[in-house]
Amino acid sequence: MSEKVSGIVDELARLAFSVGRPRSFKPYAVERLFRESVKAVKSTGTMQTLNRDDYVSLVSGRVQKAVSRGDQLWIPSREKLGTELGFGERADLFAVFFVDQILYGLCDGKPGRLKKVSNNLSDGFFAATLREMQNQKSKSEDSEEQQMEV
């Protein structure tokens, strides 16, 4: 995976982690938001009238439903994330990044091309999400140690 793709996938995983966190290390749970985003784009079929904003809405809606309906992911609170952004706003940020950087950036706006590269990208997303989970765990442990020292 090139450095450019790696940076994009890492950022996508970071954004996804603020929307829905996997309850397990099972690949399906870890890759869920990425896979749902790909499905949102692919399910448009041969519609020629969709523009960037349409894709963003489709991806955001699908991601929000996936997190809310399933038991594989949980929604981190604003307090836990240290942000004022609500769940829907974080999902929108994820969707904008996915559409701009993955669909239009890496796949030239072609849903068919996204379909072809989605398995490889999901592998990178899996690894990037696991790294993000480890980073969050390390930050939490560091914070606990600092509180104990005070």
The structural class is: mainly alpha
Oligomer: single chain
Low-confidence stretches: none
Trace the largest sheet across and list its strands: 1-2
Which percent range fits the helix content? over 70%
Percent in strands: under 5%
Number of helices: 7
Instruction: Give the biggest sheet.
Output: 2 strands, antiparallel
Counted beta strands: 2
Choose one word for the global shape.
globular
- N/C terminus separation: 43 Å
Could you state the order of secondary-structure elements as H and E?
A: HEHHHEHHH
Describe the structure.
- This protein has 150 residues and is mostly helical.
- The chain has one domain.
- It contains seven helices and two strands.
- The protein has helices spanning 3-19, 27-30, 32-42, 52-69, 78-81, 87-106, 111-149; strands at residues 21-22, 73-74.
- It has a two-stranded antiparallel ribbon.
- Helix 1 packs across helix 7, helix 3 crosses helix 4 (52-69) and helix 4 (52-69) crosses helix 6 (87-106).
- The longest helix has 39 residues, at 111-149.
- The model has no long low-confidence stretch (mean pLDDT 88).
